[in-house]
Design brief:
It is a single chain. This protein is an alpha+beta fold. The chain has one domain (2-87): Lrp/AsnC effector binding domain/regulation of amino acid metabolism (RAM) domain (Alpha-Beta Plaits, 2-Layer Sandwich), CATH 3.30.70.920. It has three helices and four strands, in the order βαββαβα. The protein has a four-stranded antiparallel beta sheet with strand order 2-3-1-4. It is globular. The two termini are 29 Å apart.
Length: 93
């Protein structure tokens, strides 16, 4: 599984609409509105490298109101939460 973090700059009056449309794209698992240099952050998870272009260049970038994107490709995940959930599979509290 490949994970990409996509920083999205939008037209200020289109943030909610862009977020909704990006969330509906196949391969996008979450979209967050954020403070800072980007308006939105999308988490993209795909099985093959070529699918990143389908989701980002042919999907996110073409949503009306998207001005530009910056994509960060994840190498490794260091998440205590994910590890705890993986080890707890099938166990009841």
């Amino acid at each position: 599984m490949l994970t990409a973090i996509v920083l999205i700059d939008t037209a200020p009056d289109r943030i909610p609409e862009v977020a909704t449309q990006v969330t509906d794209l196949a391969g996008v698992s979450e979209v967050y509105s954020v403070t800072g240099k980007a308006d939105l952050v999308a988490m993209v998870r795909v099985r093959e490298h070529d699918a990143l272009a389908d989701v980002i260049a042919d999907g996110i970038s073409k949503v009306p109101g998207v001005l530009r994107t910056e994509t960060l490709i994840a190498f490794r995940a260091y998440s205590k939460v994910d590890l705890e959930q993986a080890f707890a599979l099938g166990l009841s509290d």
